[in-house]
Amino acid sequence: MQTAKQDVERMLGQLPDDATLEDIEYHLYVLKKIRNGIRRHEEEGGIPQQEVKEHVQQWFTR
């Protein structure tokens, strides 16, 4: 995993030059959530994809 600084630099490099502070704040928020999700998955594990598919199918067949 890259460092937080590297992730932010990459994110800023992908934003248009006319990005607002609100745009940057939003993208930082999303980046933080993604990094937290990856960390949580590494620490606690995850749900197998097949199990997720079964749960989602149940939601739509009711």
TrEMBL record:
Stated name of the protein: Prevent host death protein, Phd antitoxin
Organism: Alloalcanivorax gelatiniphagus
